[in-house]
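Study this chain:
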Amino acid sequence: MDTAANYYHLIRHDLVEFVPPRVRRLLDLGCGAGCTAEYLKRTRGIETVVGVEYVPDVAAEAAARLDCVHTGDIEQMELPYPDGYFDCILCADVLEHLRDPWNVLRRLRRLLARDGVVVASIPNIRHARVLAKIVFDRFEYEDSGILDRTHLRFFTRHTIEHMFAVAGYRTELVGCNRSRSWKFALLNLATLGIARPLSIVQYIVRAYPLPNAQPSLQG
C-alpha cells in the first residue's frame, strides 16, 4: 500500500480514546476511507456514523463502511441534519487543510448536542525541526507531516485554543503526539525540560460548544 493509500486507511487509535463512551451519533470530517469511524462504530456501539470526504474515490470506499458519506468540500456544503444531531464531531488532521477553519467550526457548532464534543488533532508548527528550518531559511513544503504541501493553515497551542474560542467553543487539551528521537531527548535534557514543548508534532483537543457564545467573525 502506498503512502497516500495508507493515509486514508489509518485507524486513529490516538484519537479514539478521547471519543466519549456516551456518543451515539458521530460525524467524521475528512473521514478518508472510513476506517476510524467504522472502528468506533464496531467497538463503541455508536448507532449512526456519518462521514465527509473530499476525494470521490476514497469517499466511495468509506460509503461501504459508514451509514452515510457526503462527498465534497465541507466549506461549500450544508449538511442536512437538524440542530444538535451529533454527539461528537471528529476532525482528524483536517482543519489545517481548510481555507477558513474558523467559519467551518462556527457552522458545525449548531449540529452538536448541548453536551456534544469536537475531537480534533492539529499539527504544531512550533516544533523544533520547523523552527530550525525557519532560522536557516529553509521553510519548504514536504509530502507529509507538519509542512505538508496541502496545509493551508498553521497552528500553535495558543492559536488552536484561539480558533475554537472565536468559533464559540471551550477547549480542553487532552493529548499530543511527540517526536521520540534521541535528538529530542538530548535537547530536553540540555534545557532541563524547557524545550519539551518543541517536540510536539500534533495537539489533540476536545472542544465543547458554549450555548450562549457569540462567535467572532474574525479568525
Observations:
- Residues 35-44 form the longest helix (10 residues).
- The radius of gyration is 18 Å.
- Residues 142 and 148 are 5 Å apart (CA to CA).
- The chain is about 30% helix and 25% strand.
